[in-house]
Amino acid sequence: MRKGRLTLVGTGHMIAGQVTQEALACMEQSDKLFYVVADPATSTWIQGLNPTAESLHDEYKVGLDRMITYRRMVERTLVPVRAGKTVCLAFYGHPGVLVYPGHEAVRQ
């Protein structure tokens, strides 16, 4: 079985305006693209980049402990990685700043 790969990228704070060419290529070419963004326009843009794009925003639930939400995001992200897929995980802003699910997914 092929070894999976996870790449964490940032989308910046503007629709497509702060995405590097490398991040864009990762989002377009990955076997699976997961994302968490702050606005519907960016979500629509990302969905147009890759037909496998899937928002993790549905993991947020009123009253649910935030760490449970983050653990669910991490697990959803790692399922295809463990199955040998190339996965891109995109977060709004910078992927290394205040992004616990991204750090935890990479750690695991």
Using brief descriptors, characterize the structure shown.
4 helices; four-stranded parallel sheet; 41% helix; 108 residues; alpha/beta
What can you see in these coordinates?
The chain has 108 residues and is α/β, with parallel strands linked by helices. The chain has four helices and four strands; from the N terminus they run E-H-E-H-E-H-E-H. Strands 1-4-2-3 form a four-stranded parallel β-sheet, sandwiched between helices. Helix 2 (40-49) links the parallel strand 2 and strand 3. The mean pLDDT is 88.
A few lines on this structure:
The chain is an alpha/beta fold.
What is the fold's blueprint, element by element?
Elements: E1 5-10, H1 21-29, E2 32-36, H2 40-49, E3 54-55, H3 66-82, E4 86-91, H4 100-107
Parallel strand pairs: 1-4, 2-3, 2-4
Which percent band covers the strand fraction? 15-25%
As a whole number of angstroms, the C-alpha radius of gyration is 13 Å
Main sheet makeup: 4 strands, parallel
- Count up the helices: 4
Shape: globular
Question: Assembly state here?
Answer: single chain
Structural class: alpha/beta
Q: Spans of 5+ residues with little confidence (pLDDT < 50)?
A: none
Q: Could you give the order of strands across the largest sheet? A: 1-4-2-3
> Distance N terminus to C terminus?
19 Å
Number of DSSP-assigned strands: 4
Round the mean pLDDT to the nearest integer and report it. Answer: 88
Order of helices and strands: EHEHEHEH
Percent of residues in helical segments? 40-55%
